[in-house]
Amino acid sequence: MAFSSIFCCVKGSDRKGKAKKQPSWRVFSLKELHSATNNFNYDNKLGEGGFGSVYWGQLWDGSQIAVKRLKVWSNKAEMEFAVEVEILARVRHKNLLSLRGYCAEGQERLIVYDYMPNLSLLSHLHGQHSAESLLDWKRRMNVAIGSAEGIAYLHHHATPHIIHRDIKASNVLLDSDFQAQVADFGFAKFIPDGATHVTTRVKGTLGYLAPEYAMLGKASESCDVYSFGILLLELASGKKPIEKVDLTVKRTITDWALPLVCEGKLSELADPRLSGNYVEEELKRLVLVALVCAQNRPEKRPTMLDVIELLKGEAKEKFTALENDEMFKIPPVVDDDVLSGTEGNADSTASEEKEPKPEIEKIEVQA
Ligand SMILES: Nc1ncnc2c1ncn2[C@@H]1O[C@H](COP(=O)(O)OP(=O)(O)OP(=O)(O)O)[C@@H](O)[C@H]1O
């Protein structure tokens, strides 16, 4: 899809659902972004992802922005850029990172967002802010519910429905009030009406990929639900999606958490940085919902709408059914060797692209 054709169907914003603001994105000039970021100065750099570097900047009106600058121009990068801009331009929700605009001059491709002063969830759980323990239990529950609401909007209210395909801690940003903003739509996909899933190249991040997606390339809303389950476990425990047990063995966060839940040792799941300051009932809700989301069988995973109800404690009967689910009865036999050797340089924060399936994308429509 040529970049010039991308915006033919962009209407500025989908105002249905929980709209927060009026559409407000615009085209920026390269000159304006150079001046806002002090010529993309190294000191302004906020981080780097697969697409390129992200810089802090300030516009002439004093507002703060984050500018994502494409590293190297290629058709693939151009596509990612166009997908992200198109999706962000269509959606508006209090828990989805707002698009301020974009710039496409020569081979330069830049996306401009609102700046999120509290950076990413990753930085609080495992990165530069982790020692400060700014994420108390109340904030964690808010982040869980807020990010679930952002994803539910994509799955159930956006038209056509959207799957994100890269839900992870570095893609949940935090505003000045620690409210979650789901970001990074470069891998997102529209799901046409009536389709149960799209079969596609696998994109996403190791540790967060649903098995049916990683192995068969079947992408659907439930793949996001799986990734969200991993994110919830990370949020509750402060652990990474995949951890090294020793030099050769790696263990997934679900293989660590499920036996503890089955043995009734919920308190061992809580992040030690909380120093025991959490609401037991909420921890239980969060962890059980996380595990039911991150189970291997997609048909058994809840929808994001169910997830919100469960997290908020609004679905008493559903929660009782969840507590009595077979998966929490018998401690699973965990094979710690499962990941050893097979994913030599697996890094839970590094994006991986695998292509187990075709070059062409085919859409499967429900009969
Ligand atoms: N709007 C923003 N406000 C503040 N910081 C941001 C913003 N957008 C991105 N960042 C920071 O920039 C870093 C890089 O973001 P980016 O989305 O490019 O990559 P990523 O999600 O870390 O990795 P990948 O591209 O591999 O998925 C993030 O870790 C985040 O902390």
UniProtKB/TrEMBL annotation:
Keywords of the record: ATP-binding, Kinase, Nucleotide-binding, Serine/threonine-protein kinase, Transferase
Disordered, as annotated region: 333-367
Gene3D superfamilies, alphabetized: Phosphorylase Kinase, domain 1 (3.30.200.20), Transferase(Phosphotransferase) domain 1 (1.10.510.10)
InterPro entries to which the protein is assigned, alphabetical: Kinase-like_dom_sf (IPR011009), Prot_kinase_dom (IPR000719), Protein_kinase_ATP_BS (IPR017441), Ser-Thr/Tyr_kinase_cat_dom (IPR001245), Ser/Thr_kinase_AS (IPR008271)
Domain Protein kinase: 40-320
Compositionally biased region (Basic and acidic residues): 351-367
UniProt: ATP binding residues: 68
GO molecular function per UniProt: ATP binding; protein kinase activity; protein serine/threonine kinase activity
Keyword match Iron: no
Family statement: Belongs to the protein kinase superfamily.
Protein name: ATP binding protein
Name of encoding gene: LOC102602803
